[in-house]
Amino acid sequence: MARNELDDTDRGILYMLQQNARDTTTSDIGDEVGVSAGTVRNRIDRLEERGILKGYVPDIDYEKAGFELHILFTCTAEMQPSDEFVEDILDRHGVVTVRKLLAGDQNLHVEAVGTSTDDVSEIAHELEECGLEIVRSEVLEEEFIQPFNHFGAEMAGGE
């Protein structure tokens, strides 16, 4: 098996983690995938070491947390942004996600949250001070996310 190739067990583990990483134990995953809890733990460690499994991020309802405005800024950076530049953007108040795009003039999406229009205006001003041109800004009403459906649903009884 190639270094970054996933087998059925890896895919099943990833599928189960995508469903609910917080409340799913290695024993639960092992039962579904057909391996021991120890094998699941070893596989998860290996997936993390290989950079395939990069983290465990909570799904936050920003509005319920007091941040009524959820904004998506479409931006243009003069040059393809470096990782350091993106880290600087992520350090800005209110910024929750930055997506680098491969091609086109609009090469950066910045997702931010705020409590008021003044707050969002300040975030936009900070982005512009960093050298970004804001091409468009949109208020997100709701976001729907699903796990990638090709990761081992059949291994975990998810079909």
From TrEMBL:
Keywords: DNA-binding, Transcription, Transcription regulation. The keyword Cell wall biogenesis/degradation does not apply. GO terms for molecular function: sequence-specific DNA binding. One of its GO terms (cellular component) is cytosol. Pfam families: HTH_24 (PF13412). GO terms for biological process: response to amino acid. InterPro entries: ArsR-like_HTH (IPR011991), AsnC-type_HTH_dom (IPR000485), Tscrpt_reg_AsnC-like (IPR019888), Tscrpt_reg_HTH_AsnC-type_CS (IPR019885), WH-like_DNA-bd_sf (IPR036388), WH_DNA-bd_sf (IPR036390). Residues 6-68 form the HTH asnC-type domain. PANTHER family: LEUCINE-RESPONSIVE REGULATORY PROTEIN, TRANSCRIPTIONAL REGULATOR AZLB. This is Lrp/AsnC family transcriptional regulator. It comes from Natrarchaeobius chitinivorans.
